[in-house]
Each structure stands twice: as C-alpha cells, then as structure tokens.
Design goal:
This protein is an alpha+beta fold and 255 residues long. The protein contains six helices and ten strands.
Length: 255
C-alpha cells in the first residue's frame, strides 16, 4: 500500500531519527510540556468525572485527556476498564515483531548496492539487508560503513531471547553470501534493536474492525500503527494519525 502513495523523493534526516526526536523533544519542552523518560504507565483509570488517573512506576497523576500510542496489547493491559466490545476489537489485532542488528564496519559490504532483495528460499537468516552508507555518505557516521540487517518475526521467535553476539553469529553466514570475505573483524561496533510490536498484520475486512481513536472511556484516545489502514506502517502515517488524534481531542474540549 505504501508504494501507491510514494513519490520518487527519498531523503534522510541528518543525524538520524535520534536527532529528529531530540529536536522534537526540545520543541515540546519549549511549549511547557514535561517529558517523563523511563516511567512506564501501569494503569489508566477513570475515577472522577472528566478526569483520568495514570498510575506509573513513580506514582499517580491526573489528566483531563490521555492519548495512548502503544501497541494493542499494552493498551488492553493498561485500560482494563474499557468496555469488552472495544477491548475485544483491540485484542483481535495481530502484529509481527522486529529484530534489527546494525553494524558499523571498517569497509563496505558490497559494490555500491544500497538495498538487497533477499529471496527467503535462499536461506538468509534475515529479511532485510541495507548498506545505508551507499545512500548517505560515511562522513555522517564517523567514517564507518553502516549495514542494517532486519527481520519481521512472531513475538515468540527465538531471536527475541538471543544476545547481540549470538545474533551476529547467526547473521554472519548471510552476510558472507553477499561477500564471502566478510568477517567479524570488519565490525567495529554493533547495536541491537528489538520490538515485539512493529508490523500490523491486517486480515480480511480489517477496515471494518479498526477500533476508533476516541475510546468509550471519556477523555481516553488511542492512536497506533494498527489504525493507519490502508497503509501498513511508517513515519508519514504516524504523523498522519497523530494529527487525526489531535483534531479529535481538540474537537472534544469543552467550549
């Protein structure tokens, strides 16, 4: 679906998405907001009229509006007082997780190839292979050559319980199919990223079963990748549903 709305334009944020997030956080704080890092929300409860209580690992706070941008599973765990009809729709949403190993190498993986199409039948241990510095110059990465290996997998796949070093050992034969000379000695640094909710999986009639952004609990809203259909996922669609959620929240504010 994303191909349908793409243009020939392709860009990257200088400094990567971390730089983007840092600038966004600075702008949000500049407008008076407070960002609580490493403070998981355990429960969302409606105790008083027009008030929602968030129970976190640091205590409780009360708000008149709450927007959750979590996975369906986390929303169901946090907002247990949602009506069963809405919760059932949330629980029925399916998704795949993602495992990504990013490598900083001292030399290129291959000859001027950015994106490799990998046939699953060839036995590669990952689905996606990208040499990012064939698109963005290595000068932006301290002179390193950046290689991205990723896969979409069921949340209970063994990759989710393996160490970074074990994943590298698993992936190395796949890299050697691209370039037989590749060895661990080429790797200067590596990073492992895992998320059990990454890629929504829509089934037949999904459009008729998408939970609304405005939940049945007054003041509680939910916006996630599972609701961006007909698209599957992506930063552009995250921005789009964020705007839809903001408009819905603003429209519900008392005049």
């Amino acid at each position: 679906a994303r191909i349908h709305v793409r243009t020939p334009r392709l860009g990257t944020f200088e400094g990567g998405f971390q730089a983007f997030c840092d600038e966004l956080a600075e702008a949000v704080r500049g407008r008076g907001a407070t960002i609580h890092l490493e403070t998981p929300v355990e429960r969302i409860e409606s105790k008083d009229k027009d008030q929602l209580t968030l129970r976190t690992t640091d205590g409780e706070e009360t708000f008149d509006r709450v927007l959750s941008t979590t996975s369906p599973e986390l929303l169901a765990k946090m907002a247990r007082s949602l009506p069963e009809a809405y919760l059932s729709g949330v629980r029925n949403l399916k998704s795949l997780g993602a495992v990504v190993l990013t490598l900083a190498m001292d030399r290129p993986l291959g000859p001027e190839i950015y994106w490799y199409n990998l046939p699953k039948s060839e036995g590669f241990p990952f689905l996606c292979l990208v040499e990012h510095t064939q698109f963005v110059d290595k000068e932006h990465f301290g002179g390193n050559h950046i290689v991205y290996c990723g896969d979409y997998l069921p949340p209970d796949h063994r990759y989710f319980s393996m160490t970074k070093e074990e994943i590298l050992e698993e992936y190395l034969p796949g890299l050697q199919k691209i370039n037989p000379e590749v060895s661990k000695d080429w790797v200067k640094e590596s990073w492992m990223f895992r998320a059990q909710y990454a890629q929504p999986v829509p089934f037949v009639n999904h459009s008729e079963n998408i939970p609304s952004i405005r939940t049945p609990i007054p003041g509680l809203y939910w916006a996630s990748m599972s609701q961006v259909y007909p698209w599957d996922r992506g930063t552009n669609f995250a921005v789009e549903i964020g705007r839809r959620a903001a408009k819905s929240i603003q429209a519900s504010k008392p005049s």
